[in-house]
Amino acid sequence: MTPGRTVNLGESGIDDLDPAIREHVGLRELYLHGNRLTTLPDWLGDFAELRILDLSHQPLLVLPETLGRLGRLEFLYVSELEISVLPESLGDLGSLQYLGATGNALTEVPASLGRLTELAELRLYGNRLTTLPETYGGLTALRELHLDRNQLAHLPGTFDELTELRVLSLRANALTELPVQLARLPRLRHLDLRANRITWLPDLGPEAFPALEKLDLRWLDLPVVPEWVHQLERRGCLVYRTAA
């Protein structure tokens, strides 16, 4: 194996990692998706120059804590695995910009992720989450947050600190009311609330959702739509509602 900056072993049918990969001292991109790996070696955390790591779509049971040593990692793909927890050490990935952990069996996520001040996109849809840590208000660079198809009944009160957030998808959760802190987000453009348990919307002032361009309220049992929703429509915001 000739040392290089990219190793692509995706969909190669492997169930174990060849230690010869360690010869790639300056490795920048490592693709291991679509294989049969159930475990990973601790030495995976030794690639100090790694920027992209794709581990998705295989029967991995656990992720090593040593992933937290990948201090220059920018993109981490850990979707469609067999994991039920994420390592606390992921909060040490100070350069991380994208984290995709969709389609797993996560019932909670580490509070340490709130330290990821460079994270721009977080995808956690298709898990079993019931709550999120209050620390997630610390994700000050976050622009997209995808939480569809979980079991969230409420959001952290700190979410009004996500001042860079543009897209928030909460479709098919267990919300019973609109989290009012979202109305204060200055750059939020798309908000998807479809298929929750919301039966009423609070009265909000004309300053609510100052940048909203799309609001999806389909499949909600809303007998009354408050005036601020109509104000959004008059402003040009697309509001989707289930026909009566």
Describe the structure.
- It is a single chain.
- Strands 1-2-3-4-5-6-7-8-9-10-11 form an eleven-stranded parallel beta sheet, with helices on one face.
- With 244 residues, the protein is mainly beta.
- The model has no long low-confidence stretch (mean pLDDT 96).
- The protein has one helix and eleven strands.
- The radius of gyration is 20 Å and the shape is elongated.
- The relative contact order is 0.08.
- It comes from Kribbella amoyensis.
- Overall helicity: under 10%
Order of helices and strands: EEEEEEEEEEHE
Kindly report the spatial arrangement of strands forming the biggest sheet: 1-2-3-4-5-6-7-8-9-10-11
Number of strands: 11
Rounded to the nearest angstrom, the distance between the terminal CA atoms is 64 Å
InterPro entries: Leu-rich_rpt (IPR001611), Leu-rich_rpt_typical-subtyp (IPR003591), LRR_dom_sf (IPR032675), LRR_domain-containing (IPR050216), LRR_R13L4/SHOC2-like (IPR055414)
Keywords: Leucine-rich repeat, Repeat
Protein name: Leucine rich repeat (LRR) protein
Pfam families: LRR_14, LRR_8
